[in-house]
Write a structure and sequence with these properties.
six-stranded antiparallel sheet; alpha+beta; Phosphatase 2c, domain 1; 8 helices
Length: 267
């Protein structure tokens, strides 16, 4: 198990008409789980980008795919401008990186990539979620937990077509088959969703090693029980392992607090 990593960041925004600060607190953890020999998950928490990658493929293929993709996303952050365009350029480079290891990768090699970034080109800023594969972004807002991303999976397509119920989907034999990934044979474009920044929001970004073991209700339970992000990721990881830990488990919890200058002055 990798130890829990926790950080904080305050971001100023605005102009004369509207200004303030966004205080961010986050924590992350990744674990091999109880049945896998290696951890093919990777994560990045480098403001303004927070992502999880879940690799797949025999031998070292999945580990190479997720690590290469996260490294390229780190490069996007280091270059100073995170946008859908720079993310997709980074993904194109990741595809070439993965393909450059033919001895350990094949057509079955790939990785998911899921997360959020803060787009400060708007006033006030906005969140943008990105998704390839079946890792997920959840948002807890006003006491309601919602899955923001849509899985790219065979099961999700069957459910969308009305051919499979949520209950049937839980144990479907194709539950691990995804329909979009970052891999050596072709590039992949993420789905994006824009969200307003709201005080009190809590994001959960996770690999399916968590959602295989915890229901959405269970995820919300641990968020409600643990206001501190580090305590929340630890509690969710412990529960996932106790429930079987059948896969690698990676979790990021990101908390948002908004302070506007007008409200601060009024207080």
């Amino acid at each position: 198990m990798s130890g829990v990593s926790a950080q904080q960041r305050s971001v100023r925004f605005g102009d004369r008409a509207q200004s303030g600060a966004i205080d961010l607190t986050w924590a992350s953890v990744t674990d091999t789980g109880r049945r896998r020999e290696i951890n093919q998950d990777a994560l990045l928490t480098a403001f303004p980008l927070f992502v999880v990658a879940d690799g797949m493929g025999g031998h070292l293929g999945g580990e190479i795919a997720s690590a290469s993709t996260v490294d390229r996303m780190r490069g996007v952050v280091d270059a100073g401008r995170v946008t859908s365009k720079t993310i997709e350029k980074g993904l194109a480079r990741a595809v070439k990186d993965i393909a450059s290891h033919p001895e350990t990768t094949d057509d079955g090699t790939g990785t998911t990539l899921t997360g959020v970034y803060l787009d400060d080109s708007h006033t006030p800023p906005q969140w943008v979620t990105l998704n390839i594969g079946d890792s997920r972004v959840y948002l807890l807002r006003d006491g309601v937990l919602a899955q923001v991303t849509t899985d790219h999976s065979v099961v999700q397509e069957l459910m969308a077509a009305g051919r499979l119920s949520p209950e049937e989907a839980e144990n479907h034999p194709y539950g691990n088959v995804i329909t979009r990934a970052v891999g050596p044979s072709e590039g992949a474009t993420p789905d994006y969703v824009r969200l307003d920044v709201a005080d009190g929001d809590r994001f959960v970004i996770c690999s399916d090693g968590l959602t295989k073991e915890l229901t959405d209700y269970g995820i919300q339970h641990f968020l409600d029980a643990h206001p501190d992000p580090a305590e929340a990721v630890t509690a969710m990881l412990d529960a996932a392992l106790e429930n079987g830990g059948r896969d690698n488990v990676t979790i990021i919890v990101l908390d948002v607090a908004v302070r506007t200058d007008s409200s601060t002055a009024a207080g």
